Amino acid sequence: MQRIIGPFTQILPLADMPLKGSVSDDALHIIPNGGVLVENGLIAGTGDFETLRKDRPKAEIEEIAGSQVLLPGFVDCHTHICFAGDRAKDYAMRIAGKSYLEIAKAGGGIWDSVTQTRQASETELVGLLKNRITRHLAEGVTTIEVKSGYGLNVEQELKQLRAVKQADQLSRADLVPTCLAAHIKPKDFTGPASAYLEYILNDLLPKVKNEGLARRIDIFIEDSAFNIDDAGHYLRAAKQMGFDITVHADQFTTGGSSVAVEVGAASADHLEASTDKEIKGLAASDTVAVALPGASLGLGIGFAPARKLLDAGACLAIASDWNPGSAPMGDLLLQASVLGAYEKLTTAETFAGLTYRAAKALNLIDRGSLQKGMLADMQAYSCADYREILYNQGKLKPARLWKNGSQLITDR
């Protein structure tokens, strides 16, 4: 059965827009008084609401009252929301001026989250995940990448990924699991970092693949995690096993994004330390540059050079990095609005980075824009002008939300 949803004061389809480089707001192609034709969970067309209704007299009508602006659902292409506990103590120490090493020596840092997550059962992790997914849906996010990385051994990493798989089956959002067993070398692993990566390759990733728990792997390339040479070997080996690649790159020091480009990673994420050299390399590649403003806000450091990346011709996505340590806020729209203000991103560039360009970072081609054949993942805001959404810097939340054409949030 076909269904026409509308009329919307404005529809921003974000269709037929450039995948790379800067984007003018003139490229938005706004549909006034628009409607969306939905069939079997997919978008069958968009256009003038009255014309759609006249051309399809047998279609069911889902009428929208008042002024509302329609966008594609957001895609959050980098999160760590499968965790237990919190790191509020870390945050208090950080804003009091303590360094990363001082916090780690006091029992904080990633290892603290590993300890707390290991103590949680799979059922407990599923419950925590469902709560965070529900909040993300309420804030317009319909597709969520979720990393492991707080288990750091075979048993615990599998527990995390199984929790993600179970939560995906129980929630209305689409979850994209990523194995981040190469987050840091765990304190209880005897041997060098290179040996730990071999352990992951030999003992964990075959099980991940056999159970269908993740098709993507990630690694943190940094002085405090894994070096360039070891990471390159690990990534190439994982790619040969059939995994897609993404990389935590250039957060504090450079080098990670160059490895990401070299191995053909789908994305290089963070990039706060990227210089003109790294920007040029990313722009010349098919690797999506993912800015994580939540980490910058949480750590009190500069943002990724989003404006320079776009001007150089890179594909820029924006994700939340929602995690218990460096990015606990998790509010994707708020973070993107702040990033846009500091980096001077157009509205079109910000929306592109939250939708179809973020989908590209996950190698997803069926979402991120409102055009025929795409998933009917949509969100509507109670306003008459699309510019009000970023103007309110995250305080204006979706009034309505649809996943696969089914309405999950109604006029709040």
What characteristics describe this protein?
412 residues, Urease, subunit C, domain 1, TIM Barrel, 2 domains, eight-stranded parallel β-sheet, 16 helices, 38% helix, 21% strand
Polypeptide structure, described:
By secondary structure, the chain is of the alpha/beta class. The protein folds into 2 domains: 3-73 and 368-409, Urease, subunit C, domain 1 (Roll); 75-361, Metal-dependent hydrolases (TIM Barrel, Alpha-Beta Barrel), CATH 3.20.20.140. It has 16 helices and 16 strands. It has helices at 49-55, 88-95, 100-105, 110-119, 122-138, 154-170, 193-211, 228-240, 256-263, 276-283, 293-299, 306-312, 332-343, 347-354, 356-361, 387-391, and strands spanning 3-11, 31-39, 42-48, 60-63, 69-72, 74-76, 141-147, 174-182, 216-220, 244-249, 267-270, 288-291, 316-318, 378-381, 400-403, 406-409. The strands form 2 sheets. Strands 1, 2, 3, 4, 5, 14, 15 and 16 form an 8-stranded mixed beta sheet that branches. It has an 8-stranded parallel beta sheet with strand order 6-7-8-9-10-11-12-13. Strand 8 (174-182), helix 7 (193-211) and strand 9 form a beta-alpha-beta unit.
